[in-house]
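Input/output pair, single chain:
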Amino acid sequence: MSQDIVQRILTIEQAATKLHDDAQQQAADIVAEAEKASANLRVQQLAEAQKKAKLTRAEGGEKAEIERARILAQAGADAQLLDTFAAKNLQRAVAFVLDEVTR
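Output:
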């Protein structure tokens, strides 16, 4: 083989090696970019999930406070009704006792 052919083969081999190395570097860069994008997306989704959980917890607290206030109001109304009935019965009991004593 002549010197020119050997030189052309070496040049082609060097070019092929460079293409191979460049392709490997590009693949590594793509993988690194994908990993970075995945990590960023995970952080973003985690932040959104935490925000939703906080909002849900706050809404639950508000609903619980409303229900608590309703129960307390109902209990107060029930207690007042019982006091009214008790007062009426007390008046009747006192009247009955006085009637019995005065006979």
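DSSP finds one helix and no strands in the chain. The mean pLDDT is 89.
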